[in-house]
Amino acid sequence: MTIFLIILAVMAGVVILLLLTALLTRRDYAVERNITIYRPAAEVFEYVRHLKNMEDYNKWVMADPIAVKEYRGTDGSEGFVYAWNSKQKQAGAGEQLITKIVHGKRMDIQITFFRPFAGIANSYLETEAISPVQTSVRWGFASKMSYPMNAMLIFMNMGEILGKDLDLSLENLKLILEDNK
Question: Which residue ranges does UniProt annotate as crossing the membrane (predicted)?
Answer without folding.
Answer: 6-25
